[in-house]
């Protein structure tokens, strides 16, 4: 299996995992004190929904902090 196929398979597994969570599980505090599990999911999906230009713009607005831009 090539890297692209493995990556796609792992993304499907992750999507299936998150799809199985209920509302209270999604609102649980993650290991990152600033984010819930739902927000971690949003962060992990960000590369598929936010283009590089938008991310760079948000990073500039966040004074160079990718963490603040992501939040």
Give structural notes.
The chain has 71 residues and is mostly helical. The chain has one domain. It is built from five helices and no strands. It has helices at residues 3-19, 23-26, 37-49, 52-61, 66-70. The radius of gyration is 14 Å and the shape is flat. The protein starts with a helix and ends with a helix.
Topology of this protein?
Layout: H1 3-19, H2 23-26, H3 37-49, H4 52-61, H5 66-70
Condensed summary:
The protein is 69% helix and 0% strand. By secondary structure, the protein is mostly helical.
Total number of helices: 5
Helix-and-strand structural type: mainly alpha
Helical residue percent band? 55-70%
Series of H and E elements: HHHHH
Low-confidence stretches: none
Major sheet summary line? none
List the quaternary state of the chains. single chain
| pLDDT averaged residue by residue | 87
How much beta, percentage-wise? under 5%
N/C terminus separation: 35 Å
Number of domains: 1
Tertiary shape? flat
C-alpha Rg (nearest Å):
14 Å
Please count the beta strands (DSSP E, at least 2 residues each).
Answer: 0
Notable characteristics:
71 residues; mainly alpha; 0% strand; flat
């Amino acid at each position: 299996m090539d890297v692209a196929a493995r990556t796609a398979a792992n993304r499907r597994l992750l999507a299936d995992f998150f799809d199985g969570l209920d509302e209270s599980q999604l609102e649980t505090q993650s290991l990152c004190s600033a984010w819930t599990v739902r927000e971690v999911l949003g962060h992990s999906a960000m590369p598929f929904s936010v283009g590089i230009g938008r991310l760079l713009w948000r990073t500039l607005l966040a004074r160079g902090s990718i963490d603040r831009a992501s939040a």
